[in-house]
Amino acid sequence: MPxxxxxxxxxxxxxxxxxxxxxxxxxxxxxxxxxxxxxxxxTTGNIAKRIGVDYRQVYTHIKTLEAEGxxxxxGEAGVRNGRRVRYSLDLGRLRExxxxxxxxxxxx
Length: 108
Fold this sequence. Notes:
By secondary structure, the protein is mainly α. The protein is built from five helices and two strands, in the order H-H-H-H-E-E-H.
């Protein structure tokens, strides 16, 4: 069962309430949000610094998101290799998943 994290600093109250209603993992939400704000992608270390957590925590969520097809990875010259792997979010897939979830909750 995934851990539910405490609200992150700077998280708007409305977002905190929505995440609480859906019992969402606030750290995973923060990782997704950060990637959505940096569509050209970034490393787990940079993401972790921006949201104020350890890079290993970010990496755990990135791997789950990557397995679900929401995140892709590439290194220098577009090839995944080594320590400078950049992860980017597929915003279209994120929207698809969100809409599917909302349709499900709405009884469709």
